């Protein structure tokens, strides 16, 4: 395990395993060939062609298309073709970044839909260096139970602004009021694309830094986080460098934090590979 | 002119105009086809084949190869095939990052050799926000005379460490002593590849932030810089966004600075394109 290993883990996928997902003549995603085959066995709504899987009966209207897709997803869920539905909806973007319809967050990977999220590095500056607030995910969570996590992190659902969502997540996950959340500074992005159990996950994460004074601490406010601890940034680096204790994508956002703050410097043998790897090129589809 | 325009300007090149530069079976660069043709008219040392321009008489030994190349460069300079020689030497790296020989800094673009440099954002934190120290290049400089520039910036010659070179440049360009230079914090890289008059320039710039107290100012120490001024970061952003007053690559390093410090945020319509564009993928050769 090394810093670079985490970047490789988050960017592992084989283009040959996937085919384009085409709706209304636009390539909107990438579907695993095996899943595309399963979908087309059900009937005539989805058809495979040379250039990919076509949803041939997709309504042209945004809302009608979103509703029709949700009905299909419910059917796939009943038939066990997908693992579950989440309830939160993500926009399906075309190559120009325009939303074409909405898709359940848990279904998006089956169609290789890019998801957007926000991760917040909560840190404290002390005389002996930087400290990072680290959360531990509840054992009851479906994704990465018990793993270490950012102080605040979440997906970006449809129709909520970045600022609004960050405030909401800061309150729900760390009991930090809006006045504190609004001090968070956007500091760039991390992007990757990975083959997961459910399909392809091309993710873009908006990264934020939030410097906290010594007298303000995050506090568990829902059942998603089990506990918080404040660790020296050098100790967090050691954990990332030598283990998979953190949820997969947190490793990348932390590496970005450590590079921006000079804790990983150009003397690191993988410095250039890390810097390029944190913002891997968009996947084929988008 | 927009922020994104600067990134496009620094990444403009047409792969069809170039062919690989091959030495000892290794692809080490990219040569403009026209220049490759001119080189092969002189004799038998350089030969064009299907897979690129081969330096067929290159010695295997590192020093001997560097010397032999320098002799060729002197000849091309006399014959007016190249614009000039600089005197400082850059390493020519193979795909694995191993140095294969040394090449004059001014000749490197003719062979599409990746150059490495360092840019330092000198900034001051005041109650009303961040200020950036901006230099103006002398009218007498060969490259970008009279353009705005970073407080400190320079190429990375062979055999000098990053820390050593930064100290040297801080002293030469801004009269800042080593004790101040050593406070500079590495904050990542910017990478681009551009077609220039002389050939292809794939550049990787190591970026640094140096926070200065209000009572320490840079001071012109050689004839490379004409003057320094301290500008609000928002004013620097306006200049970059609306003009080409800065030397080309400075625009990219400043955009990176503004993104890391939250002055360009995700509400900017080009945020994702900017973030990806600052670290464009390595050129074909390397």
From TrEMBL, chains A, B:
Gene3D superfamilies: Nucleoside Triphosphate Pyrophosphohydrolase. Residues 115-256 form the Nudix hydrolase domain. InterPro entries: DUF4743, NUDIX_hydrolase-like_dom_sf, NUDIX_hydrolase_dom. PANTHER family: THIAMIN PYROPHOSPHOKINASE (PTHR13622), THIAMIN PYROPHOSPHOKINASE 1 (PTHR13622:SF8). This is DUF4743 domain-containing protein. It comes from Thiohalocapsa halophila. The lineage of its organism: Bacteria, Pseudomonadati, Pseudomonadota, Gammaproteobacteria, Chromatiales.
